[in-house]
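name: query_chain
kind: protein
chains: 1
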Amino acid sequence: MITFIPLTGFLGAGKTTTMTTTALALEEKGHRVAVITNDQGVELVDTHLVRSKLDSVAEVTGGCFCCKFEDLVEAVVALTESDGVDTVIAEAVGSCTDLQATVVRPLRRYYGENMVVAPLTTVVDPLRHRAFERAAQRGEPESDLSYLFRQQLTEADVIAVNKLDTIPAGQAGELLLGLRKQYGDAAVVGYSATTGEGVDTLLTAWEAPAGNQAVDLDVDYDRYAAAEAQLAWMNQEVELSAVEGEFDATEWARTVLARLSGWAAEQGAVVGHAKLTVEVGDGEFAKLSLTEAGAEPTVDRTPASAAGGARAVINARVACEPDDLDRAVTDAVAAADQTTGARSSATSPVSFKPGYPRPVHRLAPAGA
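structure:
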């Protein structure tokens, strides 16, 4: 019997770090764990990072699990048959919702004889949650992105508040209490996927019965599609070489994301996330991320030495027009080249906006 653990949550919430940290924790308990990443595009920074830490990794690209349901099932079957895993953790695209009806229930109905589907977990970034809450408190009309965020919380069996190490303990307690009051059918846990503190509480929550199985989420698919369409999505490869000698891959990546952060702040554009890896060879790479316009990039990993040549992958999801994101990234790469003494040769940037979500299945709760 395979255990399938579905994760959802807004862009930048830390789903990939959560997935990796919990997978390693489950392996320490004797489980054989595989993970599945998911995205609207291809060439995923997340997949590269996870493969550096785990052996069994697959990806579903070109759409969310709901629209690529059979691809998801095929990935689960392939992992279990080839790698002998007993647990699969899968993170859905950060702009996806309605997973109870389109993924969780279909898996239970059609594959329940061989698969136990764990409670649906929505991963939350406390700073992102606070930003949406403050907009509501100011009396602003609910944006489509805020609507999407709220739907992800409403359908959760487990609300997993990540990054508690980034806010004061008092604020963390208030946030957890407020979520428990607002979403009483969900288990609310707090933890830090980066430090590992509190992760055991999340693992315990996955062992409990799903508390929100009867929820029949009333999703306005036009608003859902509009929220996704606010974001331009870019996955781009860049080949790098040093003009002379070697260049600092981490500084190159930092400059790209810092320039993109500044541009987004000037434009008033929401950054869903921007992630960047620079692979310098022999399994060594830099990995940096950005989840807020105007913020400093976070350094998640650095290579041991400078590089003469490298391959970079940029994943960016920003609330703007695709052409604007293309230009912003092109300018940021040029600035990074000048700063670090690198020479870049990029594939033509082709940012896009996701199409209308069309799930393969959409099942009502049992008895509805």
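note: DSSP finds eleven helices and 14 strands in the chain.
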